[in-house]
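Q&A log
Question type: sequence-to-structure
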Amino acid sequence: MRRFLFELVEGIRIAGQAIWANKMRSVLTTLGIVIGIASVTGMATVINGIEAGFQQSLSSLGSNVLHVQVWPMGGTNQWWKYVNRPEIDPSVADAIERRSRFAEATMADVDGSYMVKRRDQSLEGVSVNGVGPEYPRIQSVELQQGRFFSRSEARSARSVIVLGATVADELFPVVSPMGKEVSVGGHKFKVIGVLKPQGGGLFGGGIDGEVLVPFDTFDARWGVRDRGVEVKVKVAPTVSLAEAESEIIGIVRVERGLRPAEENNFEVGQQSDVREQFAPVKRGIYGVGIFLTALALLVGGIGVMNIMFVSVKERTKEIGIRKAVGAKKRTILLQFLIEAVVICLIGGIIGVAISAGIASIVRATLGVAASLPISTVLLAFGICTAVGVGFGLAPAWTGAQAEPVEALRYE
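Response status: OK
Response body:
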């Protein structure tokens, strides 16, 4: 064991000397490895960021929540099947609340885009959501300041508003927004609450950049006709979503006056529907990333193998001298394998550094929580070692098999 460790340390020392003596050649040799490792770690970084953003977006849909709407969740290419469906009437929410055995909370939801203004501060195109007082329970959000509007305020269409964290910071950078007035689409609203920061999702800025008003207030100010009203139903945790969905479908069919033989003219969706829509995108990213990574590592590995053959050829006489004084084939083999692995690890370090930079850029520009976990770094170095051993084995074997007499004659 001590002999093996000595040979390992000696091999690393000789490899370092050889790489330092041919710095430019070694750097050029690592380019393929750099590209390959940057590809695999960069792909993992981006996918982690997309997954985190996707999970954030799904959390905004609420857990154990069913969505009654005209269009399928996650979108569809067959738009012609759904475009002529009648809109969801807000009364569907009341019907589900009265008749459902499994619904914990129900509300109608509608949104529009308006200017939100306070004195000389204004924000264009803010998403204004008309929701019910059950919103915090259904969406699992918490308040940073103030309170949510009550059932009586919602029913009487009071001009009260709850701000997302980003909107509150933009309109009230210094003072507290509580009790202050803001203008939304030309109408005055009193601020009664501010939501805790939620973070951006994959599909936009999330609830932080939105504001919430009572559904009936939204209807009274701007109307809800042709605005894509949907109904959200929070299902009791002791009930399966499939069982609750079956019940909700029956209630909505009755409410919309459908005969037994008629097809549903609405959709009841949940988080899993969005996951299914997103799955092909993830697979596509993985496929492209793996292909580019494999291609780059193949090119880099071939480059390492070629340089190692050159290195063996240049040091043939050195190999002959070492063998003549008693060096074993194993020692020569280990020496050149270590050199190949060290070259690949240098490329891996550079590639990981590039990926860390990519992660920072993605976080800063796209707002996606891209990260480079230690498991990915370890995977990268494992790949480097495997490439070094795999492509360095043939040159190392060639050097180890050299005959001492013939090697000493080499000029």
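Response note: The chain has a mean pLDDT of 82.
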